[in-house]
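Below sits the subject:

***
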Amino acid sequence: MKIYDVEGFPNPARVRIALAEKGIKNQVEFITVDVMNGEHRQAEFLAKNPDAAVPVLELNSGVTISECTAITEYIDHSFPGISLTGTTAIQRALVHMYQRKAESKVLDAVGAYFHHATDGLGPNLETNQNKAWGKQQKELALEGFKYFNQVLGETDYVAGNEFTMADITLFAGLAFADFAKVDIPAELNNLALWRNKVAQRPSIAG
C-alpha cells in the first residue's frame, strides 16, 4: 500500500494514527505530496484524487481511496487488532455519527477558519477566500468544543467506552485548532482530560 500525504497535516495525521493503532504503519509506503508548490493540483495527482486533497491510499491493485473515513474503514476491516469503526450495528452507527460531528463541528470548522479568515497556506494556495464565512466557522468550532466537552462528561471516549475513529478525528481537530490559534476554553475540563489521555496512546505519543 501507498499513502500520498503531507506529514503533520490534520487529515493525513488521522490516517497515520489509524495505521499505528492497527500496528501496520511499517507496511505502508508514504509518498510526500508537495502541497506548498501545488503538486496536489497537477494532473498526475488529480488522477488519483480529483478533489486535490491528501491523504490518498493507493492499493497494490492500483485502486485509489480518498477521504479519511473511507481509508480508515478499509484499514480497519482489512487488518486484525483494535476495532476503530465498531463491531456491532449500534457501535458502528455511533462511531460514524460522532466522527461526522467531530469533522463538521471541529476539524472542518477550524479548517474553514484557517483557510478563509487567516493567511492560511499563503496567497498562492488560498484563493477565493471568504473571511466573513471563515470567522463564522471559528464560532462553530468553539461551539463544537463545548459540545464534545459535554459528550465526554458521560463517556470515556467520544463514541462510548472504546477508542475509535471518532476520537482520532476530534484529536486531529484540536491539534489543528492549536495550529490555527483557535483557543480551547480552559474551563472545558472533560475535553482537556480526554485529550491528555488520548495523547498518551502509543499511536500518538510515538
